[in-house]
Write a structure and sequence with these properties.
The chain is an alpha+beta fold. The chain is built from four helices and eleven strands. The strands form three sheets. A six-stranded mixed sheet has the order 1-3-5-6-7-8, with helices on one face.
């Protein structure tokens, strides 16, 4: 397959390509899960380079091919175009970004999606470096999380879901997100610490601020108590001195 064009000095006609078809995501869980995989990257990830993270956006490798539509894609060292509403910017056109995404994630919601067959083959043909399948209800997998790395002979399943290109991993986390309790797929750092959502970061920052204020208040209270004790001691000494002088005695 021919490599995509880079740095085109003309604009390809993409008017015939479908960038939005008004097809809804499969279910509310999937909607939340996709948000949980994109929002923390923008609020808590600081990789030192530009990137884009998209959910349910068409991926076009060639102008003559149908789009793949990963639930989530992440592409490093690229920038979003300034005019997002232009037709040429409303999907991930590989020739516009100059590269395929580094990682795509598919969230399984039924037995008909082809996540381990046709979809995986499609990403393999396009040389996507990392491919992830999250199957929360075990429709097509024997495990909820399966991660694959590209090789010329086919995708190789990874022992550890850590992606060198991103310096991030993925992990299963049971907890509450947007008021819903479930097992979620989340980004994590090399030390397994979760990549925080914006809300988690705000809560953590408020907790740190509250703890710092409590420490400052405690220090002030201790200082005030110490000053009060010192002032009382000085006052007691002054009263004693006054009584001694009233008795005609002068301390030596």
């Amino acid at each position: 397959m021919a490599e995509p064009a880079h740095e085109l000095d003309f604009e390809l006609d993409v008017s015939h390509l479908v960038t939005e078809d008004d097809t809804p995501v499969d279910n509310p869980f999937q909607d939340k899960q996709m948000r949980l995989l994109t929002e923390p990257l923008y609020t808590s990830w600081n990789p030192g380079f530009d990137f884009v993270a998209m959910a349910d956006v068409g991926l076009y490798y060639s102008i003559n091919e149908n789009a793949l539509v990963p639930d989530v894609l992440v592409s490093t060292k690229v920038k979003l175009p300034e005019e997002l509403m232009k037709k040429r910017n409303r999907s991930y056109f590989v020739w516009e970004y100059g590269k395929v995404p580094d990682l795509v994630i598919e969230i399984v919601s039924n037995k008909e999606g082809g996540e381990l067959t046709s979809k995986r083959d499609g990403y393999l043909e396009r040389h996507v470096p990392f491919y992830v399948v999250f199957d929360p209800q075990l429709f097509v997998c024997e495990r909820q999380l399966r991660c694959f790395e590209y090789s010329p002979s086919g995708y190789v399943e990874m022992v550890q879901p850590f992606f060198s290109l991103l310096d991030l991993g993925l992990t299963l986390w049971k907890g509450e997100y947007e008021t819903y309790e479930a097992t979620w797929l989340r980004w994590c750092k090399v030390d397994k610490a979760l990549l925080a959502t914006g809300k988690e970061s705000s809560v953590a920052e408020k907790t740190r601020a509250d703890e710092e204020k409590a420490r400052a208040d405690s220090e002030k209270a201790r200082a005030d108590a110490e000053k009060a004790r010192a002032d009382e001691s000085d006052a007691a000494n002054a009263r004693l001195l006054e009584r001694l002088r009233a008795a005609g005695l002068e301390p030596g």
